[in-house]
């Protein structure tokens, strides 16, 4: 829904809520709650609709668009995790750990965690720049902080720290499901191809 469409709906909702509350004699409580909810929606919509410093919309793609893109253009990425959530400059992905992700000693392997972190960062970056297939990792540093649970899913939260015309930088925290402490932390740099 565009911002003008939202404002029209908001005004219609506001008028209907006011009329209903006057008729019911409950002007204070219900209307205030309606205003709070609608004001939060307006704030969220304005954040998405306002251009950033480069003149483009902040969040370039939706969750569904990115999920479809990953399935069609990067199906092997599913080996490293599936997209769970997407926001403006962040993404969360989850990997269902099975035997192929384990290393000797009964823990999740480093390559499995790195793959999850890398694909999560790719998703977070695409939320900012749009569907750019040739945005590629140029640097990945990872610190393994503690042993993940062997057969529990792991999930990653990637956050973009800076996006320029040709480079994107971000960080990823990897967690074992059910644990509040991260099992790994990664920083990454992505190269963004020039616009044609």
Task: Summarize the model shown.
By secondary structure, the chain is an alpha+beta fold. Helices cover 38% and strands 28% of the residues.
What does this structure look like?
This protein is α+β, with helices and mostly antiparallel strands. It is 38% helix and 28% strand. It has helices spanning 3-24, 29-49, 63-73, 110-129; strands spanning 82-87, 90-95, 102-103, 107-108, 136-144, 154-163, 167-176, 182-191. The strands form 2 sheets. Strands 1-2-6-7-8-5 form a 6-stranded antiparallel sheet, with helices on one face. A two-stranded antiparallel sheet has the order 3-4. β1 and β2 form a beta hairpin.
Which secondary structure elements does this structure contain, and how are they paired or packed?
Layout: H1 3-24, H2 29-49, H3 63-73, E1 82-87, E2 90-95, E3 102-103, E4 107-108, H4 110-129, E5 136-144, E6 154-163, E7 167-176, E8 182-191
Antiparallel strand pairs: 1-2, 2-6, 3-4, 5-8, 6-7, 7-8
What is the SS-derived class?
Answer: alpha+beta
The largest pleated sheet is described as: 6 strands, antiparallel
The total of helices stands at 4
Radius of gyration from CA coordinates: 21 Å
What is the total tally of β strands? 8
Summarize the amount of helix as a percent range. Answer: 25-40%
Output mean pLDDT.
80
Strand fraction band? 25-35%
Shape: globular
Distance between the termini: 29 Å
**Oligomeric state of the chains?**
single chain
Order of helices and strands: HHHEEEEHEEEE
| Widest beta sheet: strand line-up | 1-2-6-7-8-5
> Which regions contain 5 or more consecutive residues with pLDDT less than 50?
1-11, 16-23, 41-57
